[in-house]
Amino acid sequence: MTSFPTLHDCDPGSDDAITLLALLGRRDVQLLGVSTTHGNAPLSATTHNARALLTLAGRDEVPVYAGALGPLVREPVYAPQIHGVGGLGGVPLPEPARPVKAEHAALALVRQLCAQPGELTLLATGPLTNLALAERLRPGVLKEARQIIVMGGSLESGAPKLGNTTPRAEFNAYADPHAFDVVLKAGANLWLLGLNLTRQVQVTRARARQLATVGTAAAQTCAALLDDYLDRIGKLGQSVGALHDPCTAALMLAPELFGWEAARVAILTDSGEGLGETVRADGEPNVQLVTQADENGIYALIAQALEQLP
Ligand code: RIB
Ligand code: CA
Description:
The chain has helices at residues 14-24, 43-56, 80-83, 105-115, 129-137, 171-175, 177-184, 195-198, 205-212, 217-234, 246-253, 295-307, and strands at 4-10, 29-36, 64-66, 121-124, 147-151, 190-193, 202-203, 241-242, 258-263, 265-267, 278-280, 287-293. With 310 residues, the protein is α/β, with parallel strands linked by helices. The chain has one domain (4-306): Ribonucleoside hydrolase-like (Inosine-uridine Nucleoside N-ribohydrolase, Chain A, Alpha-Beta Complex), CATH 3.90.245.10. Helix 1 packs parallel to helix 2, helix 1 packs parallel to helix 11 (246-253) and helix 5 packs across helix 7. The structure holds alpha-D-ribofuranose (RIB) and calcium ion (CA). The site of calcium ion has 10 residues, from helix 1. Residues 10-11, 13, 15-16, 39-40, 125-126, 245 line the site of calcium ion (CA).
């Protein structure tokens, strides 16, 4: 059986949580570590949430490394309107059974990537501050990853509304555009899933019910997270959401569910209304830009994984 030695850098966050639980449900995924960052909620909350999710899954042996308190340059931004103040919408989770590791996430990423060059897949579903710090600490370290799969940015061309945080910027890119720039320029085997991709995988009440019928506590938690997300975006006038972060895990596990093209992508880092906007650029490709997704296949993969959990 193929195995996927994996690192997950995240800011749980409802969709990060579903991603993490899906990874934990897969026997072919060897989750070597979870690293947390500021993002949807402050670092203390995202780190607590990651630990609690591992306890929910009965997987407290997986180490959690806390990372960046804030972005490289700009001021922190959070998303309580989408994920709630605590990051998981107040959906009940067990108290974490294990403490966070003392090692900083950036140092853990450097150590783990250098220990197994060319073997690890790094899923990044939050702002990229930890990845950028790792690259600054050890230039070239991101190239040691077998594959880096990032949820971030948006390359819809011509659409009136590119972003989801500003009219032109997606949250993970906007929350730390300078880190995103470092990662784009690191020369790694980088796969980018922007809003142009994730919006093809819709979140609806029916999809929440689909996960709820799986029946495990983990699946019920994911359904509750989707319902909470839909409640919150409903207050903002949106009736359908997007399943952003779990697409990264699905791409690693079932690339046949996706289409992609080589592209060169850059990010605007000057302050002003374009801050955090990702754009196509001239020159050699620096990413595989993921452009198509099979919504049914992705939900089936997630449901099957959640069925394996308590
Ligand atoms: O724009 C969507 C991204 O921002 C997702 O990763 C979500 O969790 C938030 O972090
Ligand atoms: Ca996220």
